[in-house]
């Protein structure tokens, strides 16, 4: 907690919960329905895939650059607010665009500006949690709940309406993120030492690299699920309503873990959470690949609370408690861009080929990734000290 100054402010938990609700409520609109808008603007399926893939790499490049700048400033909140406002402007510029190249260029501009908002906003929150001794999981659970509400609610609203409504609602949700960012609690952190750049220092730290590798492999193991689970379950004869229920089961289990994870983290620690997430990944992908029968799919989907939730909670707790505040934005960006973004993007790029060759057995390759993550977690556990601080 050394070096952090958090002025007294009313309702810090509520302000953070509102921000998470707005941020992931926006994701609940963007993730399912942005491809629908892109198709309406004349893009083919291949062009949509190329645009989304390019956007992932733009974020992977921009997030560390923005974080490097943030770590040189004692106040992180102004940068989050300015980037969130820029996200509104750049999204509005996309409204009249039509055709692949105009939409691609404007979409990438928007992703370059909006992309850093999530990791920088989360870094600001983690610094607040560290200074104010607040529980990450219970506050982050509001984001997952908002994702379910918006993805289901706006799906029903958009049915039968013009695809332009998706963009109107998306811009509105970005405006709510900006307002929520303006109301986040402020915190002042010591700026990074310019003679010891945070990115270079973190990427030379053995334990931090192991953490990135461990988290990246287990997060990337979700690639086949994200890209092809719905198609696989449809081929097995399950209805769209039932498949939607299977996805909802996963997010509900994630919310439950976020809400009640604090005693678990205190009991088994960060290495234990990483091992738990990876072990559940091995079990989940082995089971999902073995059969598409409901008696097995339902418990496998319940494990999402651990395959994603436990891994993510371990990562956020690691950055919150064991990374020096002057390097925390850079650590957050590396986790987001390399540990979650780039690794998932590369795995997603080969998941189509894997599914075409192996069908449901492609999930077993994902189980191997989780097994690798478990091995990395074992090494982390051997090197772990509860009093360590990187930086």
Short description:
The protein is mainly α. Helices cover 79% and strands 0% of the residues.
Describe this structure in words.
The protein is mainly alpha-helical and about 400 residues long. The protein folds into 2 domains: about 10-180, Up-down Bundle (Growth Hormone, Chain: A), CATH 1.20.1250; about 200-385, MFS general substrate transporter like domains (Growth Hormone, Chain: A), CATH 1.20.1250.20. It is about 80% helix and about 0% strand. The chain has 17 helices and no strands. The protein has helices spanning about 10-40, 45-70, 75-95, 100-115, 115-130, 135-160, 165-180, 200-205, 205-220, 225-235, 240-260, 260-290, 295-300, 305, 310-320, 330-360, 360-385. Helix 2 (about 45-70) packs antiparallel against helix 16, helix 11 packs parallel to helix 13 (about 295-300) and helix 12 runs antiparallel to helix 17 (about 360-385). The protein is globular. The mean pLDDT is about 90.
Please provide the ordered H/E string of secondary-structure elements: HHHHHHHHHHHHHHHHH
Arithmetic mean of pLDDT: 91
**What is the CATH first-level class name of the largest domain?**
Mainly Alpha
Q: Give the overall shape, derived from the CA principal axes.
A: globular
What is the first-to-last residue Cα distance? 13 Å
Largest sheet, strands/sense/barrel: none
Assigned CATH architecture of the largest domain: Up-down Bundle
What CATH calls the topology of the largest domain is Growth Hormone, Chain: A
* Overall tally of structural domains: 2
